[in-house]
Specification:
Elements: E1 3-7, H1 15-23, E2 28-31, E3 40-44, E4 47-51, E5 64-67, E6 72-73, H2 75-87, E7 96-99, E8 103-104, H3 107-120, H4 132-141, H5 154-176, H6 183-197, E9 201-202, H7 204-213, E10 218-221, H8 247-252, E11 261-267, E12 270-272, H9 285-293, E13 306-308, E14 310-311, H10 312-322, E15 326-330, E16 340-349, E17 352-354, H11 361-364, E18 368-375, H12 392-405, E19 409-413, E20 421-423
Parallel strand pairs: 1-10, 1-11, 2-5, 2-10, 5-7, 6-8, 7-9, 11-15, 14-16, 15-19
Antiparallel strand pairs: 3-4, 12-13, 16-17, 16-18, 19-20
Bound molecules: guanosine-5'-diphosphate, 6-O-phosphoryl inosine monophosphate and magnesium ion (MG).
């Protein structure tokens, strides 16, 4: 059984928790897109892990972990993460495989990310400043890129760095009046990275196909969410990879017809970090209450997340483009205590009602939400273990999500812990 888990909103839906739970019955967990912009939380007992590059399955001993070719790898973050797990007694030796074709985030990418955002002023994207956009730009640009395999040939890596730094310096000085980190400094750092990471560099596409042929079960872990997908999200307020499940095949070399289940993760409401339109946003007491009750502060940047009602128009769209077969809805517990809850079931854009999501940022920012209102519940859900034991109004809310999105809700989150999930 192979399963792909992706976010259906603007990220931070609770993918880390869902992947950790599903990893119990998986042999290999694979990240296929994004980079250290991701922040996936896994809580085991009293220990909290915030994973940025390692797949969330890495906290389970015995599970193999793959960082696919579609990921952009920041070696400093990855090494810190590997060391962090080692300190907690979790060893990745022999079970972590990093694609030789994955592109590497170098210091100048992070520099460029920050410089570009500063130059955009009020039009900035609100990136995580992790160098994601510039690294993917170099990947598609082809001529000035470093891949993991380059760590295996340091002499030619040095020559590439010299060439790239010369090129970046021309751009940085012309556009930003800035200088790129010197090649020598980068070369010294890369030697340290290469020494630590070389043992993990592999042909991961081959590894995945060989594992599947042996009957191993694969679990694919998306980063970000479908609405941040470069092609299908709210462009330009998106990330620079195909963050929806559509990025899975290209991002690790495994075709979609090898996947049996596509699980879409949502929150029972909506959150967003960074700029861009957000039709159901509640920039008021309602949003503040959700933020405080749900601890909605970024796992990677610590920024307060913008919060609002559930947008079923957006979720239905994400589910359709992602081939989603079931929904895992997290944070139902966070909605306890609201007298009423709203779900957006359609938009009115330029006087016309539609239930098809509009990813174009300009048009989406004009969307007026058509809401259906539901009665809330006051019960604390954090200890509920069975679907039958949920309050009646919570069940009605779940049924409405299924009706508006056309997808079954198979898992419901009632708290951040592994055990706080209900199967329907
Ligand atoms: P990801 O990026 O999709 O993995 O999500 P994040 O880890 O960035 O953010 C999700 C946050 O919600 C984390 O702090 C989780 O510990 C927490 N969380 C996950 N599921 C639930 C849930 O059902 N209820 C509550 N209250 N918190 C949850
Ligand atoms: P996980 O995997 C939420 C957002 C940023 C910004 C936009 C572009 O934890 O769900 P980037 O640094 O990628 O160029 O930023 O995308 N963003 C995320 N928002 N969760 C994430 O990851 C995100 N990764 C990027 O806030 O708006
Ligand atoms: Mg996150």
């Amino acid at each position: 059984m192979n399963t792909c888990v992706t976010g259906l909103q603007w990220g931070d839906e609770g993918k880390g928790k869902v992947v950790d739970i599903l990893a119990e019955n998986s042999d290999v967990v694979i990240r296929y897109a994004g980079g250290a912009n991701a922040g996936h939380t896994v809580i085991i007992g009293d220990t909290k892990f915030a994973l940025h590059l390692l797949p969330s399955g890495s906290v389970r001993p015995g599970v193999a972990c793959v960082i696919g070719n579609g990921v952009v790898v920041d070696p400093s973050v990855l090494i810190e993460e590997i060391n962090g797990l080692t300190e907690k007694g979790i060893d990745l030796t022999g079970r972590l495989f990093i694609s030789e074709n994955a592109h590497v985030v170098i210091d100048y990418h992070k520099q460029e990310d920050i410089l570009r955002e500063e130059s955009l002023g009020k039009n900035k994207i609100g990136t995580t400043a992790r160098g994601i956009g510039p690294c993917y730009a170099d990947k598609t640009g082809r001529s000035y890129a470093i891949r993991m395999a380059d760590f295996l040939d340091l002499k030619s890596l040095d020559a590439k760095l010299e060439n790239i730094v010369e090129y970046k310096n021309k751009i940085f000085s012309a556009l930003y009046n800035a200088k790129c980190v010197p090649a020598k400094e980068l070369s010294a750092k890369c030697r340290i990275y290469a020494e630590r990471l070389s043992p993990f560099i592999a042909n991961t596409t081959r590894y995945l196909h060989e594992s599947a042929a042996k009957g191993k079960s694969l679990l694919f872990e998306g980063a970000q969410g479908a609405l941040l997908d470069l092609d299908h999200g709210t462009f330009p307020f998106v990330t620079s990879s195909n963050a929806s499940s559509l990025g899975m095949s290209a991002g690790c070399g495994v075709p979609a017809n090898m996947v049996n289940k596509f699980v879409g993760v949502i929150k029972a409401y909506t959150s967003r970090v960074g700029s861009g339109p957000f039709p159901t946003e509640q920039d008021n007491e309602i949003g503040n209450t959700i933020r405080e009750k749900g601890h909605e502060y970024g796992t990677t940047t610590g920024r307060p997340r913008r919060c609002g009602w559930l947008d079923a128009v957006a979720v239905m769209y994400s589910a359709k483009i992602g081939g989603i077969t079931e929904i895992a809805m997290m944070h139902l517990d966070t909605l306890a205590g609201f007298k009423e809850l709203k779900i957006c079931k359609a938009y009115v854009i330029d006087g016309k009602e539609t239930n098809w999501f509009e990813p174009e940022a300009g048009k989406l920012s004009k969307a007026q939400c058509v809401y259906e209102t539901f009665a809330g519940w006051t019960e604390d859900l954090s200890g509920v273990q069975k679907f039958e034991d949920l309050p009646k109004n919570a069940k009605i809310y779940i049924a409405a999500v299924e009706k508006f999105t056309g997808v079954t809700v198979s898992m419901v989150g009632v708290g951040p812990k592994r055990s706080q999930v209900i199967y329907k």
